Amino acid sequence: xxxxxxxxxxxxxxxxxxxxxxxxxxxxxxxxxxxxxxxxxxxxxxxxxxxxxxxxxxxxxxxxxxxxxxxxxxxxxxxxxxxxxxxxxxxxxxxxxxxxxxxxxxxxxxxxxxxxxxxxxxxxxxxxxxxxxxxxxxxxxxxxxxxxxxxxxxxxxxxxxxxxxxxxxxxxxxxxxxxxxxxxxxxxxxxxxxxxxxxxxxxxxxxxxxxxxxxxxxxxxxxxxxxxxxxxxxxxxxxxxxxxxxxxxxxxxxxxxxxxxxxxxxxxxxxxxxxxxxxxxxxxxxxxxxxxxxxxxxxxxxxxxxxxxxxxxxxxxxxxxxxxxxxxxxxxxxxxxx
Length: 338
Hints:
The chain has 338 residues and is α+β, with helices and mostly antiparallel strands. The radius of gyration is 21 Å and the shape is globular. It has 3 domains: 5-70, Uridine Diphospho-n-acetylenolpyruvylglucosamine Reductase, domain 2, CATH 3.30.43.10; 75-226, Uridine Diphospho-n-acetylenolpyruvylglucosamine Reductase, domain 3 (2-Layer Sandwich); 234-337, Uridine Diphospho-n-acetylenolpyruvylglucosamine Reductase, domain 1 (Alpha-Beta Complex). It has 9 helices and 20 strands. β17 (287-288) and β18 (291-293) form a beta hairpin.
């Protein structure tokens, strides 16, 4: 039975560690809890906010209505042979432990996505990606609850409309509640080592014929050096998306900044490294009160202790305005704002 509490602090439930309060709070441990939460919110005419691991949130004030934290658990192999395995995980499963669980079972494919914070259910929302692999590359299907009708619907890869840090679920916010996700993984090594830092780390470790678990460990090592641990320093990982711009704008930027970091895209656009732009603008290591830009990774905004969500948001907007003025590039925030 769903347990609804009032006046609950959300500080433990967001990786920025922002101290705000939920008017009402509950955790869903199964599908029945989810339906009860929807019914409770409707009966009491409350807005419903669904959260997972709180790693992609910036809470700028107390949250009115009911906050539902997805705490469902369960990992199962639905189908497998000597080559492929279809693995299903409940939405509340923490992402990185799920990755490690698949690797421990000899199932490959998620290794490049190691140490990404958050939950399985949140992963399709923004099509998480790292080191040359995106969730869409290993996605099979998912089951979501339609909050408008109460019906369940299965989404295929095509129906999710995945893009760069994007999906259909980001464009229909408040409608779909993801319950479980299925992945098309492999029993065979199909390593993605295109990103130089990963290959360099493996070589430095003397690993000439890496396994998927070797790749996972190397990526965990790299990420740990570049990104602060939210348990130590409040943050939500990369705060800005790498912007996609026209090739003509890249050429303009190159005239003043020959070292600009860019990646050509199949459609003729160019992806710029947002972190490089922010660092060139002098924001790396900036701090005002307890809100700051990380000293080692300029893509990461951090809470040094008691920063409010509003202070962090104001800092983000100042960075955006400066980058737009210097480079004519619009940076888009990754975290969801509440």
